[in-house]
Backbone:
């Protein structure tokens, strides 16, 4: 097995990278530039990991993806990010995240990573992006997640104009008629939260049984302004004369009949999919595809590979928590590098 030997530091992609040479008995040493830290993902978790790794002097390369900025790019107003008492537009917030990481030396590649190869014990990991394969001692995975969509007419067209994928992006819906689609805990939590201020909430679910926990179901059943349309499927979202959502077209799955529910708001809460396709067979994933990390850390179980944000977080799913995970991953990577360097350092003379 090759033992890797650090031989010098040089400039690569505008930053500092180490050159490593596998010691090949009888042959010329092969040299490749090796980044200290590559971050994959350009959302709150990835940019924050970039900021903290940059401030630690690791000059991280952030492979931020073709759709950089992450989910907040779809949020007209983020009202719960600390330090912004009047709220801030999602794209403005993400531009500030990126600028702050750049100021301390993070570098960016606006490409999607298309492959990841985990290095064997102590050797560099490899990430392919934009036709190049880059080596890194540590990789922070922060590819986030996508809300699942129903795929029916009007859903994309009316997103942000009545159709939302979580109450986090629902703009109020106070005193309005709202439809919530889904039968899990997330859907019923959304429905109960909305029922506090909406005029009426209609829960639409494809089955007559619910995956949601008993306690949530009982609370929802007790809410006076919440009603149920089951088993029903959404066929379309339709706009009114003002261009916003006005009606949700439903199909009864027993009789096949279609009908309409008047609604100015709708929340599609049928779950989300972590963007972990690249990681299958490399790191441990749960049944839904979320990266499993070691308790209390961002370590994935593969030395030098860390996971941050919604890629690994199925519970909190907020901008502030994703940013916090990014910070943790950068600190975990920094500690990992320091420990690896300390272990590789020659023993000090006692004289
Ligand atoms: C419409 C909407 C409104 C929201 N409003 C709020 C709010 O008001 N307050 C709040 O706290 N939270 C809100 N959220 C949730 C918040 O945006 C997320 O919790 C947060 O963005 C998660 O951050 P992340 O970095 O983990 O993932 P993401 O934001 O999903 O970012 C992941 C990034 O990685 C990139 N990526 C994926 N695959 C690759 C790849 N192979 N190579 C390179 N890059 C890749 C993606 O393109 C993306 O840029 C909202 C979400 C949505 C959808």
Residues:
């Amino acid at each position: 097995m090759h033992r890797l030997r650090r031989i010098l530091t040089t400039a690569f992609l505008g930053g500092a990278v180490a050159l490593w040479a596998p010691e090949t008995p009888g042959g010329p040493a092969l040299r490749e530039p090796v980044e200290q830290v590559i971050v994959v993902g350009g959302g709150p978790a990835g940019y924050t990991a970039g900021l903290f790794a940059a401030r630690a002097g690791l000059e991280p390369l952030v492979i931020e993806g073709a759709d950089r900025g992450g989910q907040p790019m779809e949020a007209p107003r983020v009202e719960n990010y600390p330090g912004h008492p009047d709220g801030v537009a999602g794209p403005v917030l993400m531009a500030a995240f990126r600028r702050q990481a750049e100021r301390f030396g993070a570098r960016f590649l606006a490409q999607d990573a298309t492959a990841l190869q985990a290095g064997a014990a102590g050797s560099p990991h490899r990430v392919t992006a934009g036709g190049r394969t880059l080596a890194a001692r540590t990789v922070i995975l922060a590819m986030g997640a996508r809300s699942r969509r129903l795929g029916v007419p009007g859903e994309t067209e009316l997103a942000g104009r009545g159709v939302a994928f979580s109450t986090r992006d629902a703009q109020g819906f106070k005193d309005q008629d709202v439809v919530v689609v889904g039968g899990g805990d997330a859907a019923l939590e959304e429905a109960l939260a909305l029922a506090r201020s909406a005029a009426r909430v209609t829960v639409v679910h494809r089955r007559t049984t619910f995956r949601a926990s008993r306690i949530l179901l009982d609370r929802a059943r007790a809410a006076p302004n919440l009603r149920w349309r089951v088993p029903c499927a959404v066929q379309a979202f339709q706009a009114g004369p003002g261009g916003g959502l006005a009606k949700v077209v439903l199909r009864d799955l027993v009789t096949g009949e279609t009908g309409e529910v008047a609604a100015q708001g709708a929340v599609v809460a049928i779950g989300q999919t972590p963007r972990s396709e690249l990681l299958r067979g490399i790191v441990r994933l749960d049944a839904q595809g979320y990266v499993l990390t070691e308790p209390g850390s961002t370590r994935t179980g593969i030395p030098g590979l860390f996971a941050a944000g919604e890629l690994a977080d199925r519970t909190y799913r907020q901008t502030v928590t994703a940013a916090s995970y990014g910070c943790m991953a950068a600190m975990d990577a920094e500690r990992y590098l320091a420990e690896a360097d300390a272990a590789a350092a020659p023993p000090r003379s006692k004289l």
Remarks:
- The longest strand covers residues 132-141.
- The first helix runs from residue 44 to 55.
- Residues 1-14, 22-28 have pLDDT under 50 and may be disordered.
- The helical segments are 44-55, 90-103, 185-195, 214-222, 319-344.
